[in-house]
Design a protein that fits this description.
Blueprint: E1 17-21, H1 25-31, H2 36-57, E2 61-68, H3 76-100, E3 102-107, H4 115-130, E4 136-144, H5 146-162, H6 173-177, E5 190-193, E6 212-215, H7 225-237
The structure holds farnesyl diphosphate.
């Protein structure tokens, strides 16, 4: 993306930004004879573990897909359980993010989210504003869809043009990125999808243009530090060329 640093070739560094589709919670629970909601509970714990690990090994941004624009099609019980988990983790974050130097940010259209969760997200946003930009940042995608994010950006840019703030020819990759939920955040170098599914499922459509992908059959609740190490080792072996040629 224009304005973003792109390092071609192989690297010994961990990726600066890792994005994860936290998939397989339902199957994990069903295989144990548990309700799907138990899988989300276990998946939320895995998120906590993996976020802590990312922070400790020097990953700067972790973006996770928690609830998509399509997930409203699930049963009311399941949607309510995911929202309750988010509330629990946000309440906990309000108490700990300053101490642990963890920034929290949301991607997605928050309008249909409950006023209570939105208020909590505003609280975590305020705490984040007081933390250093060098601190680790977790981005939680909530009521997020890549296409929806692009459409919201297009609408806002059109409105800004109509208001005379922008002109159509101002639009380029950098300008477009500045209208996305991910504004100011580098694109993910590595996208991980557990649970054996080989799809992007409307996740970070614009930002994933040059991402490396890592797929594993491990279900998200079973995903652990060793699996993340494997994903990073795999990433470090990849020869990233961004459309250029091998030197
Ligand atoms: C996908 O697995 C998972 C979700 C749609 C929900 C993820 C939400 C959480 C882990 C809870 C809260 C998050 C945070 C950040 C605290 P699936 O249900 O589609 O699994 P399946 O494909 O096996 O059915």
């Amino acid at each position: 993306m224009a304005g973003q640093e792109r390092k071609a070739g192989r690297t010994a560094e961990p990726p600066r930004h890792i994005a994860i589709i936290m998939d397989g919670n339902g199957r994990w629970a069903t295989r144990r004879g548990l309700p799907r909601t138990a899988g989300h509970k276990a998946g939320a714990e895995t998120f906590r573990r993996i976020a802590t690990y990312c922070k400790n090994i020097g990953v700067k941004y972790l973006t996770v897909y928690a609830f998509s624009t399509e997930n409203w099609k699930r049963s009311e019980t399941e949607v309510a359980a995911i929202m309750a988990l988010l509330k629990k983790y946000l309440l906990e974050a309000v108490d700990t993010m300053e101490r642990d130097h963890i920034r929290l940010h949301f991607f997605g259209d928050m309008t249909p989210i409950s006023p209570e969760l939105r208020a909590l997200a505003r609280e975590t946003d305020e705490i984040t504003e007081h933390l250093s930009r060098d601190d680790f940042q977790a981005n939680v995608c909530l009521n997020y869809g890549g296409r929806d994010e692009i459409l919201r950006a297009v609408r806002q840019f059109a409105e800004d043009c109509a208001a005379g703030i922008r002109k159509p020819y101002d639009m380029d990759e950098e300008e477009f990125s500045s209208y996305l939920d991910s504004r100011g955040i580098p694109d993910p170098e590595l996208i991980i999808r557990p649970s054996g599914e080989l799809r992007l499922s409307n996740f970070l459509l614009w930002q994933s243009a040059y991402s490396e992908f890592y797929f594993t059959d491990t279900l998200w609740p079973d995903f652990d530090e060793a699996e993340l190490d494997r994903a990073i080792a795999e990433f470090q072996k990849r020869d990233r060329r961004f459309g250029g040629v091998k030197k």
